[in-house]
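> example.struct
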């Protein structure tokens, strides 16, 4: 797949099963991120998008939110050198203005520091919601139509694409969700229209390179018809 997206689910439940606090799961989830980013780069995946923090996650207990934001800042600081060394370009999508200043500053620093890298584009979806992204795009397009910047006679889906957070990314080919849940959870709703969906019971902290390879092998076995018949492909 050219573009793989992952809903990294199960950190909290993984920790609870071990009799540990939820933060223990999030900390081990960071290790899994490092492992899978490295594997994706070696598998020559050009685009990897990780659902890191949803808009709905702001409804969690404040103590957990504060811990997650602190962990995010520390992870960005710790991983910058490896991200740069491995020629990875960091990107972020979502309502980034809602993030704490320290998170925004660290994100901006790494995004600017890796902007000339030519390898895999790693996108973190932060304070992100798919419905809200589409709503924002519709609102912006409506304003431009009203002000005669966009003409309805020339309107097509490329105009919607150009107003999404992911305007510089291709559509998703493979969407992976860990932890056994089989939901999209408001993630990249427009971009996964023809994605292959892969669900695994493995909790995110345990998601290994072998598990990732299984998902990729499963993807290779799929027949992607995009509305055509098998005979037309």
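> example.seq
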């Amino acid at each position: 797949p050219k573009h793989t997206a992952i809903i990294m689910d199960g950190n909290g439940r993984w920790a609870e099963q071990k009799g540990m606090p939820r933060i223990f799961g999030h900390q081990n989830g960071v290790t899994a991120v490092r492992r899978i980013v490295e594997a994706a780069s070696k598998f020559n995946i050009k685009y990897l998008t990780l659902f890191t923090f949803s808009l709905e996650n702001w409804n969690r207990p404040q103590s957990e939110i504060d811990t997650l934001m602190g962990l995010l800042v520390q992870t960005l600081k710790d991983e910058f050198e490896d991200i740069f060394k491995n020629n990875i370009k960091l990107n972020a999508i979502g309502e980034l203005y809602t993030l704490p200043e320290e998170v925004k500053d660290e994100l901006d620093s790494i995004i600017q520091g890796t902007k000339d890298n030519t390898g895999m584009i790693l996108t973190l979806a932060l304070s992100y919601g798919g419905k809200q992204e589409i709503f924002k795009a519709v609102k912006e397009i409506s304003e431009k139509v009203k002000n005669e910047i966009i003409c309805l006679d020339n309107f097509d889906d490329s105009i919607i694409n150009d107003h999404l957070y992911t305007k510089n990314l291709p559509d998703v080919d493979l969407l992976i969700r860990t932890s056994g849940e089989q939901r999209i959870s408001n993630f990249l709703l427009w971009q996964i229209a023809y994605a292959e969906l892969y669900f695994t019971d493995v909790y995110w902290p345990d998601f290994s390179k072998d598990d990732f390879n299984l998902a990729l092998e499963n993807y290779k076995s799929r027949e992607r018809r995009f509305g055509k018949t098998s005979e037309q492909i």
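> remarks
The beta strands are 3-7, 47-54, 89-93, 121-128, 174-177, 196-199.
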